[in-house]
Fold:
Amino acid sequence: MKRLVVIAGLIAALIVSAILALGVGSVSLPTHEVITVIAGHLGLNAGAPSDQLYEQIVWELRAPRIVAALAVGSILAVAGAGLQRVTRNILADPYLLGISSGASVGAVTVIVFGVGQGAGPMKIVMFVAALLGGLGALGMVMLLVGGRLMEASGTRTILAGVVVGQLCAAYVSLAIMVFATKDAAVAVLNWTMGSFAGVRWGDAVITIGVGIISAIAGIWLIKPLDAMALGDTSAASLGINVERTRSVVLIGSALVASVTVATVGPIGFIGLIIPHIVRMIFGGQYAAIMVLSPLLGALFMLWSDTASRALVPSREIPVGVVTAVVGAPLLAWLIWRRGGRP
Amino acid sequence: MTKRWALATLPFAVLLAACSSNAAPSGSESASAAPTTEASASASADMSETAEASESSATTAAAYPVTIENCGLSITYEKAPERAITMNQGATEVMLALGLEKQMAGTAYLDDTAISDRFKAAYDQVPVIAEKYPTFEQFLAAKPDFAYASYQSAFSEKNNKERPALKDDGINTYVSDFGCDQDKDQPASWERVNDQIMDIAKIFGQNEKGEMLVKDMTATLDKVKDNKAGKGAKVVWWDSGKTDAPFVAGGTGGPQLLMDAVGLENAFKSEQSNWFNGTWENFVAADPDWIVLADASWDTAQSKIEHAKADPVLKELRAVKEDKFVTLPFSQTTPGVTLVDGVESLDKQLSESK
Structure:
């Protein structure tokens, strides 16, 4: 019962937050105009906003950002929760397998070397490049571990991920140091800090689609993931296909994380801390983790992005900075509180 | 992370330094040292009256020693340097604009663009000692007696030595104040551009050439200012940023000088930065009459136009619908002697579209 109340509370908080966030931004708009725009899109006959600008800012700029932030937050949290169990590593998150570094290689190749520029809209070129980079990194990890991707301990996989990640990071640094002009270096830096600023409805639809799929997958995986807490052998004796679960989580996380990186750049921390926060408050049952993590991840990401676009009115603060600044003390407090009572 | 931050700050330093390019409007401190031609001619009769007067009239027999205060370091020159090294494009172009290529032992570190056509012939006469910053070995191998850079980063323990240490070794140095750590937050101004030109001219005993250069640039600037091709129009100066936040010009850098010169109104003038990560909301709310696009090889103006025309929000902007785009190479927006080329180009593009 307590859990249902929490779920209902989180969903209510998400809806209220999303509506509040529509009214917040670098351009301050009259509240009634914001309400008019929202009501119009909810099918209520509220009349047209008095200026097309309100429609553009609220519905074309803010709304897709909010949707994408909710989706990305939930995707990263679900992926992190799954990876932490199948790799038996509490530090696992979607980027541990070198995915974000690989995606950065793709993005940097476009920004610094101009590869693929002119082949289509920059946005799509970047999206494809980051996606290819992320999947390429995953491919390299799988090659490195050979057929042992699904072996009992995820240690080898994680080490391979670290190796590939470092290699990709070296490529990015080299490209910036040696080949990039000063301007390109700024662009790369901006990209590596993650941002929802460029999100439009097209991106929002993609991420929300992926978000729904990953949330459903997370719930579908509750039973096998819980069983795996007891060890692979016990899980297998309970009729769980351990190898399949592990490969679904590893490859699935890489895929969905690549989509988020391609859309908004790498955003750290969410995938790592959200499952831990849920675990510390509600215990280690995946029935709780897989339902609450996506909701909490979405809420956390939404407010991080809202802060990144509203804290300093005329400027964008990189969202990765906000997630770290808010997330680190939050996790620290939870660790401390838990340490206080064994 | 440290390296990334360092990298991140580099472009800003570059931009600042770039803001030093040309003509001084009236009232410039250094330019005020430059009397009119008639005045200097008559002053030549009693050259010794003031140091300024004697300097300005003596091209062949310059009055040394000359003491130049620059970026927190005061250096006295007993004679003109004979083996100068320049680092960064802005510094190289100031030297070439003053016709000093014969006294140069090497150049290094062009920006993202090639050297301007008008300096090409002179530039080719000077050896390029490194593509980016030279190593200390390459630096010493050129046997410099003077080194001039656009950014303070050129003189660091990492690259060679800091300026006081180089001075002890007998190598005098000059840093553009746009790239000097203690001065670079000051707004860009034509005065600062001119001061730099005059400082270099004095170091090399070429005061008349410096004054002529400043005067030429001032004349070009005045002409453009009278023309007011952009009068009353509001602009957003869009450097880069398509898939994330727009990187746009604020009110204190080279672009602001260019906009002021042609009478354009910068939508983000109140922003105390040369460049900053703006927001699309402000971009759209500004509803500019014109969009100025920086054109760089890695991020062309054309790609920005295509993005704007495809983006569901930007394509609704008046300026995008009406194709009100102006394009400038990045190098002409940075404070160097080519800044005035940017002014001319801006003036021409705006005038032609009327």
